[in-house]
Write the structure tokens for this entry.
Amino acid sequence: MIEGLRRVVRGIREHFYFFVVSTGVVASALVLLGLFAMVLRDVNAMVGSWQADQHVSAYFAAGVTPEVETEMHALVAGRREVAKVERVTSADAAVWMTERAPELAAVFSELGPAALPASLEITLQPEIATPEKMEAFVASLKIQGTRPDGDGVIGTVWEDVDYGQEWVARVHTFLSLLTALGFAFGAATGLATLFLVANTIHLVVHARQDELAILRLVGATERYIVGPFIVEGVMQGLIGGLTATVVLYAIHQGLLVRLHSLLSLAMGAAPTFLPADQVVVLVATGVALGAGAAWGAVRRFLARLP
């Protein structure tokens, strides 16, 4: 074992340039993977915030009594598709509109407190926030609001039920496209990482081909030959992983946080750095890449020797 460690130290010292280059390639590849992981986390958080904002506005028809409004509020709140429901009176709607458009205050004052209809503002569960499921929910809500009036005529308690159909469809299409692009970019990044690391370490092994050929000629076992290269690969992966973590944290603090401050309305939640378990996975990936690429490159070279 001591002899193996001596060979590792000697190999690093004699080919220090290649060791640094290989470590830098591993670190660069892991930075790409880490950036993808961070962006994916932030996109998922943004998608979650958008989906949580999907809601339905059900406006009560004129003449609906407060008792019926209370009854419908309870019925809608009890549905499994509903995460939250808020009852908005005509007066509340007028206040809300006046706060956002003060120039309409005189109009509402003239028309009276019933100028705007009362409504139920319904927030749906995230899994319901698709065009098909929202359309089905609205259809069932309209049926739920159908009832006979005092004269036995079938009517509805709703003046209108709105959920921004076109906006929901566009958001859903955009999110589907975003997910597909994310998977495609992740696959491309993974393949590029494997290609870069494998070919760089292959060059390192090629630069030491004389050493490998001599060891084979004197009868050294494959384990004796390959072992130090795997240890070097582990060291390159470990150092590369730690270096990538530092670089990713600098990118997170210097770029992503500032980008969020400019696009806070669209991005929603603030970007977060990789959690500890994902940092461990990133470093472990570097170690696996370094060791696996070294093992594969040496085995491939030894297979060509007589």
Summary: The domain at 55-162 is CATH 3.30.70.3040 (Alpha-Beta Plaits).
